[in-house]
Amino acid sequence: MDEKLVDLETRIAFLEDAQQQLSDVIARQEQEIARLLLRVGELEEQLRQAVPALIADAAEETPPPHY
Asked: d(Cα 49, Cα 56) in Å, to the nearest integer?
């Protein structure tokens, strides 16, 4: 009986350790996702600001050679 109890306690200890490791990974991933979302937002804003500069006014465009 003692052997089974020790085996169960060992398994529980292993599971508790595995659960803590998974919890730590999830916490790190949440931080990384938040950081990446912030960066994506910054890049979207940079793109919005850059796009008008990349698009020439229709009056400034030269017509294609077949016109």
From this structure: 14
The position carrying tokens 């009056």 is: 59
> Hey, what are 1's tokens?
């009986």
> What pTM does this model have?
0.63
CA distance 3 to 11: 12
Extract the tokens encoding 2.
Answer: 């003692």
Tens digit of pLDDT for each residue in 8-61? 999 999 999 999 999 999 999 999 999 999 999 999 999 888 877 666 666 667
